[in-house]
Amino acid sequence: MTQWKESLMALAFRNLSMLQTLSHSLLPVLLIAAAASDALSFRIPNWLTALTAILFFPMAWATGLPLHDFGTHLLAGGLLFIVGFAFFQLNLFGGGDAKLMAAAGLWFGTSQILPFLFLTAVAGGVLGVVIGAWSMMSISWEIHAENLDVAGLGKRLRSMKPNVPYGLAFAIGGIIAFKDSWWMNLVA
Were both Cys, which of 44, 52, 81, 164 would link to 102 (CB 3.0–4.6 Å)? Predict the structure, then answer.
């Protein structure tokens, strides 16, 4: 009888450990996958944003997310979906970026939404500056290689519209903000 109890306790501890590992790593892994896809193809697949959103629900249930907190997480996801849709309509975001922001918002809830957005904005700003600088250097090399005059320089600069894979900024901001989320404090 004692051996049976010990086996059951060991199994419960292993399951708790697996749940803790999933709660600590699932969103960061999904954000990294979205960042890699966006950086390589400037696309975040619908299946990946849907998976990010859908997996929130079984994880919330399995980890015992309190009902009130569950509601605040749904509210955060809904608010970020509306904001993302508005940004998409204004051509500030791509559709994948808007959906990824909303899906990640489900995981952060209203208590962590501002750190997530702030850190994402900082990461996006740095990323934008780096990509803008790289684009300027590329144009400079082209101008020197082609010996363009001032008119040619102006034309090149006006045509410069560097693409920023904002999924990378969401991953950086999300992973940094995730350390203070409910999920990381689940089991001490």
Answer: 81
Q: Return d(Cα 115, Cα 108) in angstroms, integer.
A: 9
Handedness of CA 24, 26, 30, 32 (dihedral sign): positive
Q: By C-alpha distance, which of 12, 31, 11 is closest to 183?
A: 31
Per domain, the residue ranges of the chain are 2-178
No. of helices (H) and no. of strands (E), the chain: 6, 0
Residue 23 CA: distances (Å) to CA of 48, 57, 107: 18, 12, 10
75-96 pLDDT tens trace:
999 999 999 999 999 998 899 9
DSSP conformation class of 132? H
Is 53 within 8 Å of 101 (Cβ atoms)?
no
Tokens of 78: 């809904």
The model's pLDDT over 133-162, given as tens digits with 9 standing for 90+, comes to 877 777 666 666 666 565 666 666 666 666
Tokens at residue 39, please? 């950086």
- Three-state secondary structure call for residue 10: helix
Name the 3-class secondary structure at 161.
Answer: coil
